[in-house]
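Summary of Year 1 activities. Much of the first year was spent building the evaluation harness for sequence design. The harness presents a backbone, in tokenized form, and records the residue chosen at every position. We chose the following record to illustrate the format because it has been used consistently in internal testing since the harness was completed.
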């Protein structure tokens, strides 16, 4: 499949521009001609073939939200995005969305045709427009959700990037020092040290390569084990449980998952979805098996007739602040405000945990980097200096 941009002449004699998805020029021409259009210009668009990530989705919903605010129809808004945005995968999928919308299908059902691009949560939120008709508001909510999601992801990247970079540089300096200075130290030991190599130098020259090889083998085995665990449900549950037990990282993962859960519930309820529909969407968003199982148990307790706050209070991983917010919202019949408050609280706590994790990583990796530099000085540079001094004598 390829994307073809066209200029056509309608039955009314008007010129119109647009895009069509087809296998080749002939199919694109026949597609247009079958709709009683007279093609004037038809050209293939060569977009780079890329995957679709959160940033792509953010750009798409940002564009659509702005266009709808300017009173542009959603079909024209999507087509203008295809016209200017160079992601072949996303553009090809959006063409099928446009085609479905032109055939009279609802927004939710049109986007449902692109499940390989849009997740169930986004599709479910867009389906809520069938009940409310507030397309621009729902799309703005999805856009804000993606903005927040992108913000904390960027925070994580910024937090861990520098300390990890410094640690990698330190390891590379150590390896290069061993490769360049190691043979020279050994030769100097033979000439001026009567063949006796200092203990730290011997450790660096003989044991470090062995330790590096063992570390590489263990890392490879760990990656393979992770892959094996990810391909089946029980394995994912085990991996999830292991991640949640890691200090700080486990806490951060839980807070991120709960923030996403609360935010999706808030958006869905604000879009007038039934609570159970909104709850199903929010549960679907969770990618941690352990948390998803707990949330399914919460759902079952609600179906059995228990209060929402009571059902959540019996689940693991649910903080007291969320339970209190639910209790207040349930009593005041305003769950939208409750989940809005809960998501805001979880978001602030998530950013705090990211900052705390960054500080811990910075301290730990700075100490690690300092240890490597001291080790290089003591095991390689000092023996060279010592032997040179002896030779000078």
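For this record, the design step produced the sequence shown next.
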């Amino acid at each position: 499949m390829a994307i073809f941009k066209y200029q056509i002449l309608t039955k009314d004699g008007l010129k119109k521009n647009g895009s069509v998805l087809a296998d080749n020029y002939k199919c694109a021409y026949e597609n247009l001609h079958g709709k009683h259009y007279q093609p004037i210009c038809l050209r293939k668009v060569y977009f780079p073939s890329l995957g679709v990530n959160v940033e792509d989705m953010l750009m798409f919903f940002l564009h659509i939200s702005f266009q709808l605010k300017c009173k542009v129809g959603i079909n024209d808004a999507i087509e203008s995005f295809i016209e200017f945005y160079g992601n072949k995968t996303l553009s090809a999928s959006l063409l099928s969305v446009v085609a479905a919308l032109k055939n009279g299908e609802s927004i939710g059902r049109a986007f449902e045709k692109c499940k390989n691009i849009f997740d169930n949560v986004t599709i479910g939120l867009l389906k809520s427009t069938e009940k409310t008709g507030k397309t621009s508001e729902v799309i703005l909510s999805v856009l804000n959700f993606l903005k927040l999601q992108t913000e904390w992801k960027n925070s994580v990247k910024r937090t861990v990037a520098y300390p990890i970079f410094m640690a990698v540089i330190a390891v590379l300096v150590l390896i290069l020092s061993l490769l360049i200075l190691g043979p020279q130290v050994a030769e100097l030991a033979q000439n001026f040290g009567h063949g006796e190599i200092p203990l730290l130098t011997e450790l660096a020259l003989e044991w470090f390569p062995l330790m590096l090889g063992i570390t590489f083998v263990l890392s490879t085995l760990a990656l393979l084990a992770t892959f094996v665990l990810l391909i089946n449900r029980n394995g994912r549950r085990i991996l999830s449980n292991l991640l949640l037990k890691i200090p700080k990282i486990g806490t951060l993962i839980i807070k991120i998952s709960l923030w996403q859960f609360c935010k999706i519930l808030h958006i869905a309820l604000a879009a007038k979805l039934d609570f159970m529909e909104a709850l199903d969407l929010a549960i679907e968003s969770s990618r941690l098996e352990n948390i998803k199982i707990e949330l399914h148990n919460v759902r079952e307790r609600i179906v059995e007739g228990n209060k929402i706050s009571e059902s959540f209070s019996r689940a693991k991983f649910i903080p007291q602040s969320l339970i209190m917010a639910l209790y207040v919202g349930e009593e005041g019949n305003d769950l939208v405000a409750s989940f809005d408050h809960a998501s805001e609280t979880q978001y602030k706590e998530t950013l705090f945990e990211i900052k705390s994790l960054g500080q811990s990583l910075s301290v730990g990796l700075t100490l690690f980097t300092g240890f490597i530099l001291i080790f290089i000085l003591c095991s390689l540079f000092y023996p060279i200096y010592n032997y040179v001094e002896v030779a000078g004598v």
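The two ends are 79 Å apart (CA to CA). Quantitative recovery figures across the full test set are reported in Table 2.
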